[in-house]
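Allow me, if you will, to draw on your knowledge of protein folds for a short while. The matter concerns a single protein, recorded as an amino acid sequence and a row of backbone structure tokens. Could you please explain, in whatever detail you think fit, how the structure tokens follow from the sequence? I remain grateful for any guidance, and I place the record below:

…
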Amino acid sequence: GMGIGGGTILIPALTMFLSIDQHKAQGVNLLFFIPTALIALFVHKKNNNLEFKTALPIILWGVIGASLGSLLATSLKPELLRRFFGGFLFIMGGYEIYKGFSSKKSDFFQKK
């Protein structure tokens, strides 16, 4: 429930507790993501929750971005990749905290 994927827990757990290299940990995370995404896609298709006209450009640019990102990630040293990932988690965590406080503040002032 933080609005981020399970990799926020899986990748640090693999690197800190099992001493797996950052590249391998991110690869494992991606392998775990594929079946989950396929099942979610199937369920959303079954429930008529997909708008293919909207989804196709997102899929196209997502595949392009993932390909470029993987090329970049494999060219970086594991320590630098770990620092980038840590910075990303820090920024996303700050955003989620801010979002949580701003929604509670607006809920507080609404009449019930």
